[in-house]
Amino acid sequence: MSLLGKTFLLSLKFAWLLTLCLISFSCTQKSLKPTTKSALFFYYRAENNLKQNDFESALANLDSAIIYNPQLANFYRVKGFVLEKLERPVDAIAVYEKGLEHYPSQPEIQGKLGNLYLSVGDFANAAVHLKKASHAYPDSAAIHFQLGKAFYQMGDFAFALNQFSAYQSLITMPDSMFWKWEGLARFKAKNYPAAAAALEKYLTPGSNDVEAIKILGFAKFNIGDYDEAISYLNRVEAFFKNDVEMYRYRAKYFLIYGKPDIAYEQLSNAIVIDSTNSDVWFELGEVDYHSGRYEQSRRRLNKVLLLDQEYWPAYRYLGFLAEKEHELEKAEAYYKKYLEHTFERDAEVVERMEGIASKLRVK
Fold first, then answer.
1. I want to staple 216 with a disulfide (CB 3.0 to 4.6 A). Which of 130, 151, 199, 247 is the partner?
2. Using the 8-state DSSP alphabet, how is residue 345 labeled?
3. 39 neighbors 72 (Cβ within 8 angstroms)
4. For each of the chain's 363 residues, which pLDDT tens digit applies?
């Protein structure tokens, strides 16, 4: 072949290879669009959906935006907001938590998460996030209030009261619900006068918050306002047919007014509801003892110790019963165990112990 022919063939091969490269480059350009531009395209569509309150479409577009770029924290923030609007708190929590993985320093999101965890009953996680939010926003009364509620639900009543105090110091006119939570926490902390005062501020004439009325009744009982207490408890009795504490307080009321048979009936109803309640078994044993049913009292008190070996008041009455049977060594052992774990001086038991000691010396 001539030199001219070879040159022509080489030119054809070069042109063919160049065409393939251009086609390949063109296809690559079409399939690999810039990631951020694609993500933002769907994000802006979601924004338009939100302006029209079309939350389902907004959610779909946000999902697409996150697929294209899962690193942008704001996508998760908006998606969490949409899920809250759709009343899907568990999904909103998962999305907000995912956003924190990409950008941990978001105190506003910590506050949202705290409120959401509180709404679904996860009080430990609520407290964790609300504490972080309170560090960022120490002057936020709302965060302190929510954190107080989380601590209350966890049983940390002293911490709850600290947060409620912080809330109160930051606001001129507390929300009415504040007085309810303050009252509940004061009751749990055994500050019964303060509990009653707070709940009376919360409850208005005609109020139908049966839980608050019940606790106000309990608080009134503990400060000695027995008739007012039973009036509150009677108002809400129908709502608490399976509430053991209601029966216990009603039993205490009838005992104070010298009606042990009615008290016994109340406690018997309570033990049907909860046969593992050591307080009710003990109170039944007390009533039996003071009514002269000594053998039945002993059975009740031994049942208490089967449920809780550290129920120290039970040892006091078992000592009384042992003394009645002239089992002095056994009575002394019961009294010692009781006194070793009792912080307040029990003059009656101390006197009985001294009497037993003198009798044993004579022997």
1. 199
2. -
3. yes
4. 443 343 333 343 434 433 333 333 333 333 334 345 688 899 999 999 999 999 999 999 999 999 999 988 899 999 999 999 999 999 999 999 999 998 888 999 999 999 999 999 999 999 999 999 999 999 999 999 999 999 999 999 999 999 999 999 999 999 999 999 999 999 999 999 999 999 999 999 888 999 999 999 999 999 999 999 999 999 999 999 999 999 999 999 999 999 999 999 999 999 999 999 999 999 999 999 999 999 999 999 999 999 999 999 999 999 999 999 999 999 999 999 999 998 889 999 999 999 998 888 766
Q: Could you say which DSSP state residue 203 is in?
A: P
Q: Could you give the C-alpha distances from 9 to 2, 14, 21, 126, in angstroms and in order?
A: 11, 9, 19, 76
Which pair of structure tokens corresponds to residue 307?
A: 């449920």
What six digits make up the tokens of 234? 């009677």
Distances (CA, A) of 45 to 30, 58, 228: 22, 7, 62
Q: CA 330 to CA 320: how far, in whole Å?
A: 10
Torsion angle (degrees, nearest 10) of CA 17, 22, 26, 31: 30
Report DSSP state, residue 105. -
User: Which residues have C-beta within 8 Å of that of residue 260, sequence separation ≥ 6?
Assistant: 254, 287, 290, 291
Distance in Å from the first CA to the final CA of the chain: 140
* Among candidate residues 232, 170, 234, 239, the one with its CA nearest the CA of residue 195: 232
Q: Which amino acid is at 84?
A: E
Burial of 200 (0-12, 13-18, 19+ CB in 10 A): middle
Structure tokens at 238: 């129908």
Containing 40, the helix (H) or strand (E) segment is: helix 35-51
Q: Among 280, 297, 279, which Cα is nearest to 288's?
A: 297
The per-residue DSSP string of 263-293 comes to HHHHHHHHHHH-TT-HHHHHHHHHHHHHTT-
3-state helix, strand, coil in the chain (%, to 5): 80, 0, 20
- Dist CA 328 CA 320 (whole Å): 10
